[in-house]
Amino acid sequence: MPKKKELRLRWHEDVEDHNYPAAESYLSLIFTAKTAAALVAGLRAAPAAQFMAKDIFRASGLALAGISKSRLETDRRKIAAGKMLSPILLVRDEMNGKVIVADGYHRLCAVHSFDDEAWIPCKIIDRAGR
Asked: For residues 44 and 70, what is the distance between their CA atoms, to the nearest angstrom?
């Protein structure tokens, strides 16, 4: 795998279409189907943003996936090969003081495993959908 300074992350300019239904599926486990759909509609319309990988992890409270996870390895290979990744989708949940990674958890883990200070493009909204 490339060393940190050799790594060049490549990102799609916008979120790939198939990431939105994945985000809605995940969010529907946390919220009602109506709320999940509204959040995804908000994410589709949200402007692009960027945050460091380590900050997203700290704000989410999530654990890093183990390197043996097959999806994580797939994303690590994409990074090493210079392939483009889709930006991640985030929902700011102020009530719980966390950021929900609605889609892109394995991409986030893969990037973090190479460089925890890497800037990750994303779309982020608050829980109210704004």
From this structure: 28
Question: Rounded CA gap, 108 and 76, in Å?
Answer: 10
N-to-C CA span, the chain = 38
DSSP state at residue 13:
S
**Domain parsing of the chain, residue ranges:** 9-126
CATH 3.40.50 at 9-126, yes or no: no
pTM: 0.89
Task: Mark residue 129 as left, alpha or beta (left: phi above 0; alpha: psi -120 to 50; beta: remaining).
Answer: left
pLDDT in tens, 7-25: 689 999 999 999 999 999 9
